[in-house]
Amino acid sequence: MRLSKPRLNPTTEADWDDEQRELVQVAERGGPNALNIYRTLAHHPKLLKRWGVFGAHILYKNSLPPRERELLILRTGWLCQSEYEWGQHVIIGRAAGVTDEDIGRIKDGPGAAGWSELDAALLCAADELHSDSMISDATWQALSGHYNNEQLIDLVFTVGQYHIVSMALNTLGVQLDEGVPGFDA
After folding, report:
1. Taking the complete model, does pTM exceed 0.90, yes or no?
2. Are 71 and 138 within one domain?
3. CB-based contacts of 58: which residues, under 8 Å, 6+ apart?
4. What is the per-residue DSSP string for 35-59?
5. Could you count the other beta carbons within 10 Å of the beta carbon of residue 181?
6. pLDDT (tens digit, 9 = 90+) per residue, 43-93?
7. What domain range includes position 27?
8. CA 17/CA 174 separation, integer angstroms
């Protein structure tokens, strides 16, 4: 973790008013335990409400196949050195078909041995958006051979969403939830 303790302590259920309770429950999709990210963002209910709609599109309604979405998210979390983002999406990624071999190679990037042409192009896109805020013509052409326009737009917004989330997690010092692996995963 970049910070060893939170700059903003996560809220607790005892702190929540009715609006915060509802927002956290919606963000958790009915799950029993509120994650630290949602408990921290509950400090700003209006932002949590609006961000939640966008975040839900990217995570649950994205037009990209789930494994490919998760490759983008994991690479972005790694590039931003957001251990919280990385750890949460190692779990989500595995459920979406990302293998342990993939997880190890994501850290090494698109040039690592073993990637398919498409997987390497996805990681290149994440790298280019991170470093230049733009996908190069060569990478765009490689991706355009596999994706329609809606998917290409979702790709850009997926990297952007997880870039901003990583910045928030790192800056606010959101700590790993119990049982979530860090960069050692």
Report:
1. yes
2. yes
3. 69, 154, 157, 158, 161, 162
4. -HHHHHHTTSHHHHHHHHHHHHHHH
5. 14
6. 999 999 999 999 999 999 999 999 999 999 999 999 999 999 999 999 999
7. 13-60
8. 21
